[in-house]
């Protein structure tokens, strides 16, 4: 019997269990996949620990991203066939579908053939990061060529994707990281500038880099106390997009910079794009073009076997990684 990852109570990585399960027949508009690789995401750790946008219905499954081969298709599915190499775009509730497993079912609308030049591990590391960045920088912020884009938590998989997307748009990515030990890796990944926020004056550095004009776009998964500095370092009419809530402290907005700079402060979630067929097609086309030409390429930080899913989640929460954590099956 194939195994899947399940948790029966909210908690840390140790609540994750590998359990045997019967093979599920795909229903209409569903695809069954023999999984080769899984991409790990912060959203899954938050779902497991009760901190996500929706609460888990226990016992719960987990997982937004998988890559593998089509094992069976339900009625109404015509864009893929048995044997195709595919990967899955996050665009569903984990209370309905969970992709951590050896054989899983996914909604057909989210299943795409991955680029032929990608390994299964790279395919599993693609869609959450790049569609999230597409939604935030293109659909929401409307980032333009020549604009400065500040990217906090830049060594995460979405941060790296955002750097690459900004470069593809001919914008100027400014990567933020806490310490300078990741500076060289971020520059190699495409950042034009790197600011170590615990070692440098964030506002002064961004003003220096932008010639005193400030950042046009801020794409922030953190919030918290640093957000006030990001507002202060923004240009007049800047667009600040929050797509996460990693900070444990309140997010405060300073009124005087807000009044004087007239920024737009908004939020972004991947489902805004992935659950809209027209936007999803545009995102998939953009990402596939970037993968084909080499301007977009996922960076894999570390791989774990499925048997080490607990250790993989512990590593995810350690914040040591540069790029995506992938689990092989």
In brief:
With 329 residues, the protein is α/β, with parallel strands linked by helices.
- Calculate the mean pLDDT score and round it: 96
Helix proportion = 25-40%
Largest sheet: 7 strands, mixed
| N→C terminal distance | 14 Å
The residue ranges in which pLDDT falls below 50 over 5 or more consecutive positions are none
Number of DSSP helices? Answer: 11
Helix/strand/pairing category: alpha/beta
- Quaternary structure annotation: single chain
Strand content: 25-35%
Count the strands? 16
- Quick one: overall form? globular
Order of helices and strands: EEEHEEEEEHHEHEHEHEHEHEHHEHE
Rg over CA atoms, rounded to whole Å, is: 20 Å
Walkthrough of the structure:
This protein has 329 residues and is an alpha/beta fold. The protein is built from eleven helices and 16 strands. The strands form three sheets. Strands 3, 5, 6, 7, 8, 15 and 16 form a seven-stranded mixed beta sheet that branches. Helix 3 (127-140) crosses helix 4 and helix 3 packs across helix 10 (277-293). The radius of gyration is 20 Å and the shape is globular.
Secondary structure blueprint with pairings:
Blueprint: E1 3-7, E2 17-20, E3 30-39, H1 42-48, E4 60-61, E5 65-73, E6 85-88, E7 103-107, E8 111-113, H2 120-124, H3 127-140, E9 148-151, H4 157-168, E10 172-177, H5 183-189, E11 193-196, H6 202-209, E12 215-220, H7 226-232, E13 234-242, H8 255-261, E14 264-267, H9 271-274, H10 277-293, E15 300-305, H11 309-318, E16 324-328
Parallel strand pairs: 9-10, 9-12, 10-11, 12-13, 13-14, 15-16
Antiparallel strand pairs: 1-2, 1-4, 3-5, 3-7, 3-16, 5-6, 6-8
Helix pairs in contact: 3-4, 3-10
